[in-house]
Amino acid sequence: MWSLLIPVLITTAAECYRIGVGRADVTGPPVEIAFMGYAAMKQRGTGIHLRQFSRAVVVEEAGSRLVLASIECGMMSHGVRIEVLRRLGQKYGNLYNEDNVMLSGTHTHSAPGGYLMSMLFDLNTLGFVPETFTALVSGIALSIQRAHEDLGEGRISVSHGELLGANINRSPTAYRQNPEAERARYAYDVDKTMVQLRFERPDGKVMGAFTWFAVHPVSMNNTNTLISSDNIGVAALLLEESMNTGYLPGKGPFVGAFVSSNLGDVSPNLAGPRCLASGLPCDVTTSSCGDRDDVCVAQGPGKDMFQSTRIIGERIYNKALELVRAGQQGRRYLTSGLRVVHQYQDMPNYKALYWDPARAEEIPVQGCPPAMGYSFAAGTTDGPGMFPFSQSVVTANPLWNTVRNLIYGPSESQKSCHYPKPIMLTTGEMSFPFEWQPSVVSTQLALVGDVALACVPGEFTTMAGRRLRDALRQTLHFASNKNVLITGLCNTYADYITTPEEYQVQRYEGASTIYGPYTLPLYLDIYRKLAQSILTPEYRLARNEPPLDLFNDLLTLTTPVIFDFAGLSSHFGQVLLEPPDTVVPGQTVLVRFVGANPRN
């Protein structure tokens, strides 16, 4: 019956959509605040490389609406989303709500943290940072407001292209744990397909493009202290510059967003990992070096992180621009139809059936309370951790267990549930001073014509994402899984999602899969049910309880700017060194003036 219902949703003219796009600045405090991504407390802001933006599109059809915003931040948090919805509600009532607003973080690792409202994720910023939170909320809400005000008749088209030379798999040994027959279906161990939704007016004027490509924005490494939207941000700025002739960065009518996808094990550092001191290759399994003082770090294609960011960004931009400018034969227009569904899920208590290939039978599985494994402390080849851990650790260390138990040791049931993960932090059993990692997550699915947008609350690895695409393609009766767009780090952040096979070897991604070995099968069941509810109106989704409201429990240990002084003989804004009257292209201009603390 479902296959008969799909055409009913998508039979009318393509111009029946009303579409609006908008953009706004979300740049957080540029100094003194730690960045979110590498979890390195020493990585505190000292300035700005590239500003952060939120780019939004509103799609309306027959009374249904979808908001999709791609935000240049580490990831989205439930608290930010709820406050954005509250502000939109003050202006538009219930027009934009939990069901139809989809907020996705690009996953740059060079932007201020302190807004996720989970104890573990806000540790390196010493708790909640109101300045980061306010900048994100205000900018996201403004980008959606601008998209709302831009609403008008339009068309949506989808196009695809293959991009090589922009991403590699940073955990190939884990990827190779997946069944050989499954891996044989794919030419690469990362997704090389770029997918783009282009928005245009009935007269053909292109108003925006949202582009999905799987890569971590970590060309800027963990020594960087300048706010940066990284390689994805470079691609967005270049695309908008090409389409908005004569406008300054962040301005102009065309909005070009890049949306995170199944990037969990995907790196832009094409030169791969090497031991920093010796220059020798790292151990392929553990990503460690023979000398304990040496560090295994992956390098980008450039001479430094700034050049690598530019190179990867330009490659992504060039393919995206090619898709934007592709003619009629290079794209397919979506016919009408718009449905969006949303549901909160309590992951530790969620149950599903899973076909276990090792047993060759279907078994009941359930989520675990959140926990982080030893290899989480090792970090990744894109950003090594602060402690002497290596990846692929599946046996516990008595010394570190003693240290762990002084903080909070895992229960026997927790150890059993997460096996073979040796638990470093049993975050789901820790509640002081408040929740350490989320147990309840947001799950959401949109169907625009015959393209599905799966808003997922974390970082799916390459194969985990492929399995989700397959599951939704089958449930929605799509001809191709290219019609399923995984929209990552969306609405909630609940770390990584590996396949059960990848989980067994406990690379960083497996150690950070917080609901246990069956996390992915649980999500596959959840998104199948979301798809069923889209196809079958009588299939009612339960209104589950949302995450805890933690606003009153938050800690803020970062001090505000106590005192700022221009000097006895100066005033703020005073120019100390004037720029020259004339300059030529390429010339470096030096000016000096009296500035205040940028956090003021």
From TrEMBL:
Protein species of origin? Graphocephala atropunctata
Look up the signal peptide feature and give its range.
1-16
Tell me the residue numbers annotated for binding Zn(2+).
107, 216, 459, 496
| Keyword Lipid metabolism part of the UniProt annotation | yes
GO CC list: extracellular region; membrane
On whether Disulfide bond is a keyword of this UniProt record, the answer is: no
Q: Which residues form the Neutral/alkaline non-lysosomal ceramidase C-terminal domain?
A: 528-600
Catalysed reactions listed for this entry: an N-acylsphing-4-enine + H2O = sphing-4-enine + a fatty acid
What keywords sit in the KW lines? Hydrolase, Lipid metabolism, Metal-binding, Signal, Sphingolipid metabolism, Zinc
**What Pfam families does the record point to?**
Ceramidase_alk (PF04734), Ceramidse_alk_C (PF17048)
Entry cofactor note text? Binds 1 zinc ion per subunit.
**Molecular function in Gene Ontology:** metal ion binding; N-acylsphingosine amidohydrolase activity
* Listed name of the protein: Neutral ceramidase
EC number(s) per entry: 3.5.1.23
Mind listing the GO biological process terms from this record? ceramide catabolic process; long-chain fatty acid biosynthetic process; sphingosine biosynthetic process
Family named by the database record: Belongs to the neutral ceramidase family.
Family matches, as InterPro entries: Ceramidase_alk, NCDase_C_sf, NEUT/ALK_ceramidase_C, NEUT/ALK_ceramidase_N
